[in-house]
Write a structure and sequence with these properties.
It is a single chain. The chain contains eight helices and twelve strands. By secondary structure, the protein is α/β, with parallel strands linked by helices. The protein has one domain (2-237): Ribonuclease Z/Hydroxyacylglutathione hydrolase-like (Metallo-beta-lactamase, Chain A, 4-Layer Sandwich). Strand 9 (136-142) and strand 10 form a beta hairpin.
Length: 238
């Protein structure tokens, strides 16, 4: 599904685009090279690769697959996608090792619909790193909170700021899962304050609907809800 120039949705259980347990999976086509963002739970890889090809990108052009964080529905396809495309898998440096060994608690293994396959993480990213994908340069933002190694990617197309954000932000202020392993409310609030300041135009979240204009207001709404008193109560007793 083409979302805008060079940006596609190629997986997502909520859209019937791949396995029901898959997060949203995005493709950025930089021309010579391409990038996938997240890989789903592992059972939707065939559909993800087919959708990539239908978008006009031969899977062999995928140079990087960046995972937003360590949960199974975002990393479960790492092994098969790496095998099919020979791409480099990248995660934040703080979650590289636990993704490689599939730490049961941190990846939420007991919630996965099938046994996960371990894959090497080739690149340990940190805040401020730049990934060059053809004509685009995507900046890594470390946004701890949902997990301690959560990351977003920020880049521009035709003057529009685009944020690939995993589970760090959802559209319409819909709060994602809070208080899971690695959750840190105060870090999350700081991460959201930073994202609000960036005034992004396009929001591409890991679940739910994407926002193709005016995304700044959605990020602000999410930050406002995260700072609500009831959130502090829920996270303190969880």
């Amino acid at each position: 599904m083409k979302l805008m120039e060079d940006v596609y949705l190629v997986g997502g259980g909520g859209f019937g685009y791949s396995h029901p347990n898959d997060c949203n999976v995005y493709l950025v086509d930089g021309g010579g090279a391409a990038l996938l963002f997240d890989t789903g739970c592992g059972l939707g890889v065939k559909a993800i690769l087919q959708n990539t090809a239908k978008s006009g990108v031969d899977p062999s052009r995928v140079a990087y697959t960046v995972v937003s964080h360590c949960h199974f529905d975002h990393i479960g396809g790492n092994f098969e996608i790496q095998k099919a495309t020979r791409c480099k898998i990248a995660s934040h440096e703080s979650e590289k090792e636990l993704i490689e060994r599939l730490d049961p608690r941190m990846v939420l293994a007991e919630m996965a619909p099938s046994k996960l396959q371990a894959a090497n993480v080739d690149m340990a990213l940190k805040d401020g790193d730049l990934l060059s994908v053809g004509r685009y340069h995507l900046r890594v933002l470390h946004t701890p909170g949902h997990t301690f190694g959560s990351i977003c990617l920020l880049f521009e197309i035709d003057g529009k700021k685009i944020l690939l954000c995993g589970d760090s932000v959802m559209s319409q202020g819909r709060l994602g899962w809070i208080n899971g392993p690695g959750f840190d409310l105060e870090a999350y609030k700081s991460s959201l304050a930073r994202l609000v300041d960036m005034k992004v135009d396009v929001l591409l979240p890991g679940h739910g609907t994407f926002v193709l204009s005016g995304a700044h207001e959605h990020v602000k709404l999410y930050a406002d809800k995260l700072n609500s008193p009831w959130v502090n109560i829920v996270t303190s007793i969880g």
